[in-house]
Amino acid sequence: MWKLEINTINNVSEYLDVIRKRGFVCCYRGQTQDWPLIPSLGRLKNRKFLDGLLEIEEEIVEKFTQYSYPYLENKSISYFECLIQTQHYGLPTRLLDFTLNPLIALYFAVEENIFNSEGVVWGIDEFGQTKIPSIDEDNIIFYAPAHTNNRIINQNSIFAVFPIKRYTEEIIPLESYNLRIFQKIIIPSNIKESIKKELNILGINKMSVYPGIEGIVEKIKEELILK
Fold first, then answer.
1. Distance between CA atoms of 104 and 122, rounded to whole angstroms?
2. Where are the domains of the chain?
3. At what angle do helices 102-110 and 192-201 cross, to 10 degrees?
4. Which of 28, 3, 11 is nearest to 201 (CA)?
5. Is 202:11 a contact under the CB 8 Å cutoff?
6. What does the pLDDT profile of the chain (227 residues) look like in tens digits?
7. In 131-157, which positions are buried (b, 16+ CB within 10 angstroms) versus exposed (e)?
8. How far apart are CA 149 and CA 137, in angstroms?
9. In this structure, is the dihedral angle defined by the CA atoms of residues 97, 102, 104 and 105, taken in order, positive or negative?
């Protein structure tokens, strides 16, 4: 039985001390609030039709493939490749983002300070397979995607792929699976901003985490406008 280790940190140095205790590469996920570990598809509140989550996902993939066809370099994109693209552009999917870089996870935990809430970083002893998962999997699979865009590269992305069956109405949180979740690191709301400044010195910021014009614009807003 894996024992969950819970730590509260106050700066990047303390955070790295906690991470170093593991001594090997793991998967990490940072969240600005302590939400359940459920992918965006399972967090949908208002659905425009009443079918199950798989049916909604299939509709999203079909529409995305149809509408984005002129912009896709690879016209024979697979279902899972399309899921990664829809995730990239903010549509709900069965994928839950993780990273192999604990500093990236920390950035996501302090990126925003919604309702002055604590941020959290989860650590899990799982490794991503490079083989594309089957859509009929019964368990969560950790998938290391091909480096198809700069965001996947810069974020050192790993995806937890959740199983969804026909007419499924609810996704079971990752915490309910028999996975090796070993670490929960809490970041108090009042130190989020100071940690963001530390991470910026280390080169972890909007521009590096979200490469491209979008990230550049957001970084300029942070520096010059949205103080």
1. 12
2. 5-190
3. 140
4. 11
5. no
6. 568 899 999 999 999 999 998 777 789 999 999 999 999 999 987 666 657 899 999 999 999 888 887 877 766 778 888 898 888 888 999 999 999 999 999 999 999 888 889 999 999 998 888 888 888 888 999 999 888 778 888 999 999 999 998 888 899 999 988 888 889 999 999 999 999 999 999 999 999 999 888 778 888 888 887 55
7. ebbeeeeeebbbbbbeeeeebbebbbb
8. 26
9. positive
Helix (H) or strand (E) holding 99: strand 95-99
Phi, psi of 105 (to 5 degrees): -60, -40
As a whole number of angstroms, the distance between CA 205 and CA 187 comes to 17
Q: Name the strand (E) or helix (H) holding 28.
A: strand 27-31
Residue 121 half-sphere exposure toward CB, CA atoms < 13 A: 29
Helix (H) or strand (E) holding 135: none
> How far apart are alpha carbons 172 and 175 in whole angstroms?
8
* pLDDT recorded at residue 50: 59
224 DSSP 8-state letter: I
Say what the pLDDT of residue 23 is.
73
Beta-strand relationship, 95-99 and 157-161: antiparallel
